[in-house]
User: Which sequence fits this backbone?
């Protein structure tokens, strides 16, 4: 009977984790747009130039969702004018990934025109949600 209780407990825990992961994966989350000086320097070091909103993707060579994310980002840049794309190989930029709190690939940081991280997505983002978030950033940049 104890073995059955353990199996049921493990199944419940796995189901709860799967539900949590599925609800969180690919969702756009707001970030407090107050970077540290080190984070701002890290973004500039990665090639980010202030002026227009940028979609900064951290990816890796063996990551299949990274390729899907790249296609979504390319569609967003084709849909919304004035958006830059920047892709970084996470394995080659480990210090930058750690500084910016990137723990998995793909992770996309939505950086506003002033060079501050405004939102982030871990996993493949939803095209419609990402377009809406980028349009919000570009509207803020045009004010």
Assistant:
């Amino acid at each position: 009977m104890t073995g059955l209780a353990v199996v049921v407990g493990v199944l419940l825990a796995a189901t709860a984790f799967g539900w949590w992961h599925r609800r969180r994966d690919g969702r756009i989350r707001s970030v407090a747009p107050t970077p540290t000086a080190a984070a701002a320097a890290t973004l500039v070091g990665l090639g980010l130039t202030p002026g227009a909103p940028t979609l900064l993707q951290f990816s890796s060579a063996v990551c299949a969702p990274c390729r899907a994310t790249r296609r979504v980002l390319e569609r967003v840049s084709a849909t919304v004018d004035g958006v830059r794309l920047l892709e970084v190989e996470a394995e080659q930029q480990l210090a930058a990934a750690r500084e910016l709190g990137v723990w998995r690939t793909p992770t996309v940081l939505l950086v506003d025109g002033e060079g501050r991280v405004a939102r982030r997505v871990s996993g493949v983002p939803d095209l419609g949600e990402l377009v809406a978030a980028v349009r919000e950033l570009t509207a803020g940049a045009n004010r």
Summary: Residues 2-141 form a domain with the Glutaredoxin fold (CATH 3.40.30.10). The two ends are 66 Å apart (CA to CA). The CA atoms of residues 58 and 88 lie 5 Å apart.
